[in-house]
Amino acid sequence: MQTMETRYTHSPLDIQHYSTEELRREFLVESVFVPGEIHLTYTHNDRMIFGGVTPTTEALEIQLSTELGVAYFLERRELGVINIGGPGFIEIDGEKETTKKQDGYYIGKETKHVVFTSEDAANPAKFYISSVPAHKKYPNVKIAIDQVKPMETGEGVTLNERKIYQYIHPNVCESCQLQMGYTILEPGSAWNTMPCHTHERRMEAYVYFDYANEDTRVFHMMGKPDETKHLVIDEGQAVISPSWSIHSGVGTANYSFIWAMCGENITYTDMDMVPMSEMK
């Protein structure tokens, strides 16, 4: 089974009077990984498609053509994949690769078939995918977690000690506009991306997972820096972050998340930092 929900764009003025329910309906994706299914969200923020592919007893392949006005899904798109579940396989135009937890893949445009399977249906792979429009075909690249050197940042004293694994990034592989990575907070740390920033030139989407325990929740901060709002995020849920919005979170315990960006450039450090004195 495959589903795809469409989410439309918003002005900062749109959300000024949103209730909690309205904010969650427009920006939160409550169901990403469903065993045996493909659950996708198509946001009109830079036309990113993201979601979960969770194969169990049968192989799964994203089938999108008429929805995008093309002959096949990746005719005019590139794709990023990171497995956050059990061991599995990705078959790309007949070439099959194993993927353990935290392994990723960049798949270029004009790739006709990408098939996802799990090694064990009782412990299925959970493939998080992000796809954006692409103008050029770049080589497909497997990004094994063992080959990624994390960027260690933050401090325990500020509760934001974390490791950032850059998967789809100019230091690792070429892409048209997609960037994608995996951030793991150390035990005792709770904050990500604080002090916060915006990047008017790029939008972003997060999926939160690997919570420390079942009672862990993340408070995801969004909105203009001088008019912040928040969403309470359960494990395995995703959030859309427009280019004008901050995107930061604090958890009741440590957690991990995958970030994916697209827009005008692929400069990871192209951020407009927000001084803490300007936050409201």
UniProtKB/TrEMBL annotation:
The keyword Metal-binding applies. It catalyses: 5-dehydro-4-deoxy-D-glucuronate = 3-deoxy-D-glycero-2,5-hexodiulosonate. Binds 1 zinc ion per subunit. Its cofactor is Zn(2+). Keywords: Isomerase, Metal-binding, Zinc. Coiled coil: none annotated. Its EC number is 5.3.1.17. It is an enzyme of class 5 (isomerase). Pathway: Glycan metabolism; pectin degradation; 2-dehydro-3-deoxy-D-gluconate from pectin: step 4/5. The keyword Metal-binding applies. Zn(2+) binds at residues 197, 199, 204, 247. It comes from the Bacteria. Catalyzes the isomerization of 5-dehydro-4-deoxy-D-glucuronate to 3-deoxy-D-glycero-2,5-hexodiulosonate. Belongs to the KduI family. HAMAP family: KduI. This is 4-deoxy-L-threo-5-hexosulose-uronate ketol-isomerase. It comes from Enterococcus diestrammenae. The gene is kduI.
